[in-house]
Write a structure and sequence with these properties.
329 residues; 4-stranded antiparallel β-sheet; globular; 46% strand; single chain; 3 helices; Methylamine Dehydrogenase, Chain H; mainly beta
Length: 329
């Protein structure tokens, strides 16, 4: 009888192990490749809304850069809204622009453009051997670029190119005010430090179950949305990448930006058509206020005047500084 009971217990334990393994495999298969859910109907956004495609926004001071198909538009917020911004024609598929000081950097195919915000043109170009999808520039002028078709990055420095193996594709690069760099792989839902000065990669961490977008904060802080897991994650990059805080947020977070004037990070969630501010002064991100957004918000940025901009494939929403202050009070 004891043998029978022992055998039955072993069989049940074996079944439990198989079921646990199967569940783990199913969870792993569901990780990565996150996309934001479509917004519910009936969005009633706060602030002002213009019919302008703006699913990517970079800001250098008071100058905006927005890629609209094969056109790059650069100008002040007023010029963008009034359709008076300068337009530059782009050849091939481009990534999202990023800002550094008074300039922008944009990856388009095998080219990376350095663009002066005050006098925009496509004359300043760096060319690699393979297509790039994301690029950032350091405070000392090095350009770091990566692509979704390979496991390495290219560093352009002093008229030379250096290759840094990172072992995974790059969907987005982010650089902090202290020149710390991280690479995002949405397929593996991972964030990895890039030790670009040493021409090598750093450690990598998993971001929940489906990383969306990342954005720099103050110092070497980086924020990330876990789109599939409905979370906000807070990391530091120097000297090694570390996860410090996480918090649940509204359904399907995607775009986010740091608001240094109010010392909060704004996180937009397409599942609820809302954008919520979180303080990170304590051990866990603390909700401070919420505003209503346009549907299917993809881009979030804040300009030098304190305007919070939210963009989608068809609309640009402007929430001015007073609106933010009232929401946070």
């Amino acid at each position: 009888m004891r043998v029978t009971v022992a055998l039955l217990a072993a069989l049940l334990a074996g079944c439990s192990s198989v079921e646990t393994l199967k569940a783990s495999e199913e969870q792993a298969a569901a990780m990565g490749n996150a996309t934001p859910v479509s917004s519910p109907d009936g969005a009633k956004p706060d602030g002002k809304v213009s019919e302008i495609a703006a699913n990517n926004i970079a800001i250098a001071g008071k100058t905006l850069a927005i890629v609209q198909g094969s056109t790059l538009r650069i100008g002040s917020l007023d010029d963008i809204v009034a359709d008076k911004a300068k337009s530059l024609n782009l050849n091939g598929e481009c990534g999202e622009p990023t800002a550094s000081g008074a300039s922008f950097v944009l990856a388009c195919g095998t080219d990376v453009f350095r663009i002066d915000a005050a006098d925009p043109s496509l004359d300043n170009k760096l060319t690699g051997e393979r297509p790039f999808s994301s690029a950032v520039v350091t405070s000392t002028g090095e350009v770091i670029a990566g692509g979704t078709d390979r496991g390495d990055l290219t560093i352009f420095a002093n008229n030379e190119q250096h290759t840094v193996a990172v072992g995974q594709r790059t969907d987005q690069l982010v650089i902090t005010p202290t020149d710390s760099v991280a690479a995002i792989n949405r397929e593996q839902t991972a964030i990895q430090g890039v030790l670009w000065k040493d021409r090598t990669h750093g450690a990598a961490l998993r971001v929940g179950v489906g990383v969306g977008k990342v954005a720099p904060g103050d110092g070497d802080v980086v924020f990330a949305t876990d789109t599939s897991g409905d979370q906000l994650a807070v990391y530091t990059l120097d000297p090694v990448i570390r996860l410090h805080q996480t918090a649940p947020v509204a359904d399907s977070p995607w775009g986010l930006t740091w608001d240094k004037d109010n010392n909060v990070v704004w996180v937009a969630s397409t599942g609820t058509n809302t954008i919520t501010a979180y303080s990170i002064n304590t051990g866990v991100p603390e909700e401070k206020g919420t505003l209503k957004t346009i549907a299917n918000a993809r881009a979030v940025a804040i300009d030098a005047d304190g305007n919070l901009l939210v963009g989608s494939d068809s609309e640009l929403q402007v929430l001015d500084a007073d609106t933010l202050t009232n929401a946070l009070s």
